[in-house]
Amino acid sequence: MGRSPCCEKAHTNKGAWTKEEDQRLIAYIKAHGEGCWRSLPKAAGLLRCGKSCRLRWMNYLRPDLKRGNFTDDDDELIIKLHALLGNKWSLIAGQLPGRTDNEIKNYWNTHIKRKLLSRGIDPQTHRPLSGGSAAAASGLTTSSTAGFPSPSPAPRPARPVITIPPNVMFARAAPSEDGHSSSGGSTDAPRCPDLNLDLDLSVGPPSSPPKTPAAAASTPTSQQQQQQQRTTICLCYHLGVRGGEACSCKTASPAGFRFLRPLEEGQYI
DNA sequence: AATAGTAGCAACCGCCAATTA
DNA sequence: ATAATTGGCGGTTGCTACTAT
């Protein structure tokens, strides 16, 4: 079957964007808003792939982007979120207004990894290096999800809002039917003994994200409104636990959920 | 001052899931 | 119900700037 290319590569520019291209893209999106990236390049008079336009806009040209250094608080938040979510950069970026997934991904790879290593912590497993080295050496933690099972069954969320008050413990997933259970007693220790997160994962109303320039420009306000209207949902869902499977959220108190993460065979935090 | 090595960042690629026809 | 299309994401690459020798 095969996939058709997203654009005609023979007639598209590649590499660094010029100022003129940036201006064209900005002007077009200001006039017409985001959306339909495939047809945007032609409409805007750009010899670029639609995906490339989207990336340029999202990562560099958006007016609400924050530039400058990350604070220590940002670092700690990113570390905690990474411990919870793995390499879900877009989700992590959603908790840092004005930051992009690409920026955070780069920042993680260039700064935070080293920071954690200097603390003697494995950046993939968030465990002390001495204890986690065996697992790392065995290849168990070389996956793209920081040692966590991929949450692939979860539907792509519409930028959930996660607030992190100071205190909630992780709960380990109960054994599940598909064999992704925490087999044996050797993994009974908490996977992230030093993690103590209180996550309130929420999403805004089901309406589409702002598509018009005006709406896009007012993003911070919109986000505040969405936070006010947000509906709390179960984080297990995002972490790959199927509906109701090994999930006790329904019994959790309104003040907080338990967040469960299914374990791969032989895996642990 | 020149060169080599390293770090940081922007952009590309390929895949996946949702949507549409 | 199925295939095609599109948007979005994470991993990786390559260029540029900076630092050490």
Automatic annotation (TrEMBL):
Keywords: DNA-binding, Nucleus, Repeat, Repressor, Transcription, Transcription regulation. InterPro entries: Homeodomain-like_sf (IPR009057), Myb_dom (IPR017930), Myb_TF_plants (IPR015495), SANT/Myb (IPR001005). It holds the Pfam family Myb_DNA-binding. GO terms for molecular function: DNA-binding transcription factor activity; transcription cis-regulatory region binding. SUPFAM superfamilies: Homeodomain-like. This is Uncharacterized protein. It is found in: Nucleus. Coiled coil: none annotated. Residues 9-61, 62-116 form the HTH myb-type domain. One of its GO terms (cellular component) is nucleus. The keyword Transcription applies.
